[in-house]
Specification:
Blueprint lengths: L6 H17 L7 H9 L3 H14 L26
Length: 82
């Protein structure tokens, strides 16, 4: 599959994910099972988990609104959310 710039690349990615879902659905993760796991954790366990995730994936700090980690490419990604 040849990826084209812009919207075509997004469309091709979504189509590829759809084909994978049809052919091999067990390769996808059920978010409901993640919610069930998280519900069983204590507050301190969840806090520890969040710190561990954020330490390994600092790009996620933007999700928490941490100053200095704002999404600099937000304008470039507007087309993706249409």
């Amino acid at each position: 599959m040849r990826l084209l710039p812009g919207r075509d690349a997004v469309l091709q990615t979504r189509c590829g994910a759809g084909v994978t879902w049809i052919r091999d659905p067990e390769t996808f993760f059920n978010l409901d099972s993640l919610k069930d796991i998280l519900k069983k954790k204590s507050r301190s366990e969840l806090e520890e988990l969040i710190v561990q995730i954020m330490s390994n994936r600092t790009e996620y700090l933007v999700l928490l609104g941490i100053e200095g980690f704002e999404d600099e490419d937000e304008e470039d990604e507007e087309w993706y959310d249409e």
